[in-house]
Amino acid sequence: MEILRIPALSDNYIFLLYDQNQQIAAVVDPAxxxxxxxxxQEFELNLVAIFNTHHHGDHIGANNQLxxxxxxxxxxxxxxxxxxxxxxxxxxxxxxxxxxxGRIAEVFFVPGxxxxxxxxYFPPAExxxxxxxxxxxxxxxxxxxxxxxxxxxxxxxxxxxxxxxxDHTRVWCAHEYTLSNLKFALTVEANNExxxxxxxxxxxxxxxxxxxxxxxxxxEKLTNPFLRWDTPELQKAMNSDEPVQVFGRLRGQKDVF
Length: 257
Ligand code: ZN
Ligand code: FE
Hints:
Layout lengths: L1 E7 L3 E8 L4 E5 L5 H10 L2 E6 L5 H4 L2 H7 L4 E5 L11 E3 L4 E4 L2 E7 L8 E5 L9 E5 L2 E2 L2 E2 L7 H12 L6 E4 L4 H11 L4 H15 L7 E2 H7 L8 H7 L4 H13 L2
The structure holds zinc ion (ZN) and fe (iii) ion.
The site of fe (iii) ion has 6 residues, from helix 2.
């Protein structure tokens, strides 16, 4: 299974999973039709699945057009998103499994950004060490999604599930927000050397318009404050040692950053 990152809208990424031998593809959160259709045509791929993480417009924008172009494809989304994702045919719950090109992904229910948000995790293929996590707007590189329909407690629970995955996991999140996320992170963990280093690197990348996605989960654990509610420096900065409170205060500060 190969993965292609397709920039869309102002700062979204659409991810195209494909298998050149079988000439099939699946798309995660198709924000726009044109860039996806163009690549499918170029690579002569048949689109067999849309994997939606949640119902927001910048994640489901091309569902209907893609379904019209590939009537046999199946549209997957969270069970709680029933009625909100155009064309949804499969209603996934925590622990469900979905298949693409011989790979099985595990579904995680990760509410917080929305009440129905799910993530898809493909464990490493045989003889490989890298798993693939498609987490929509739940976990970002250096940050996390805003709490539109959930509480800090929901999000801590959701992010804990993702944080428990292996360090080698590649994090395919749906937006290029990394630079501004790290800028904020430095305001709450100024002495984190891994974070300082990462900020320099991302600054360099973005100045050359290089994408920072996918990120690596191990690096997120070291530098993303929204996964670090149990580190002393962050607890001190948030004036609490209670995980949900640390996270809630952090999220509150980021909301107005
Ligand atoms: Zn969203
Ligand atoms: Fe989004």
